[in-house]
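Researcher: Please translate sequence to structure tokens.
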Amino acid sequence: MKINALLISALLVSVAIAVWGIVDPQGLGEMSSSIVAIQFESRGWFIMLEASALLLLAIYLAFSKYGTIRLGPEGSEPEFSTPAWIAMLFAAGMGVGLLFYGASEPLTHFSVIREFLPESEAASLAIFVTYLNWGFHAWAIYGVVALIIAYFAFRREQSLLLSAPLLDVYGSKAWTRALAWIFDFLSVVAIAVGLAGSLAMGVFQIQTGLAGVLGLDPSAQLTAAIFVVMCVSFLIPLRRDLGEGMSKLSNMAMGIAIGLLVYLLLAGPTSFAMNTIVSGIGRYTFAVLPAGFSTTEFFNDTISTWFQDWTLNYMIWWLAWSPFVGIFIARISRGRTIREFLIGVIVAPTLFSMFWFGVIGGIGVYNVLDGSGDLLAVNNESLDATTFALLKEFPLSYVTQIATITAAFLFVVTSVVSAGFTLAMIGTGGDENPSPPVRTIWGAVLGALGLAMIFVGDVGLVRSIIALSAIAFVFIVPILVVCLLKSLSKEVDR
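Model: Translation complete:
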């Protein structure tokens, strides 16, 4: 086990945050919420500008002269098949969130927008905003950060660390070493806190679903039991080979999610769902770039708060996860070209997200517009209950609820496993195969942080804690982009 100052410092800070959240969860949540609100008010424009700039950069790099550059030595081949690769990056990046927000997010947007527009327009715009939050901008953030890490690791033969581009381009000087250490340290904190928030949301959803299936009332005892089982489940694969553990779990989770999606599409209002998908993709395709530059400076407090709580929060959330997802995607992407890498990372998951929200979110909106259910009331009371309430409207609801619980469980486990590997890699100086003890320690820390987020209880406050942990990356990522462009330019001009 490699022990260094970064590993010790990161562990101490992560444990301190976990203890704070367990001892005073409300205090941690409220403090984070107030700081994030100030940042959003003053720098919301910059966050949207950066997210859009990263998307435009990804498009440029994919189709420019740099697109044929291979992430590794010339002639190198990818470690994983393309389907397995896409399943792994998708499961690590968004699997838990899609299950949690599949029905609830479009309905939440609809509830706000219907106050200002007719219900039909509100429904269409609700789907569009959901696509905006989960689409190209999100995966462009992941993709560009992952590309930077992969390029310097496999092309420039540097470490799988966020600091590697800085040291490679500007050399090992006193100021670069200090800044590099800060980059790696902040990436550890953002990864640990961001993942813990997703773990907590997974537990919330699994508890709600399991309580409904078993006919129980949600309780602390049930939450504790789910949490313990989940911790045991992710600690076991953390001690095994990355490909052996992650690939199997992520493929299983994706298989269940796809099966659930197909069933709901065929058993539900198929025509309405397909119309939602087709019209939603059309609207998104032609409006996504302008929407990425939108802010709410001319709107009232209701719209501004809604925009900050969702779209701005999401952009920060993707930035919070970018070191984790970026390092992990880089780790599994050796041998692919820049063009293949960016198209795969950005387009494939976005299309699946559109299909997912179009079906599940579209059915949820149909439930409200048709007046046949009370999903909106359920959603207003508890976001984690919405998906299960929707499933109860269909035949075989017992089976589909069990499937959703299983998929959520597997997505959480795969996320924690991939995060544990990533944190262990950073903490050991970029070791691609960190030792099982280091991975296990980080798994335990992630469990403690997840418990703290569970104690916080409120999903909104949890999102604020995640956002606070990632504020620094609003400024770090542009520096990394400059490093990438300088290095690419030198390579091509050589």
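Researcher: Any highlights?
Model: Residues 5-493 form a domain with the Amino acid/polyamine transporter I fold (CATH 1.20.1740.10).
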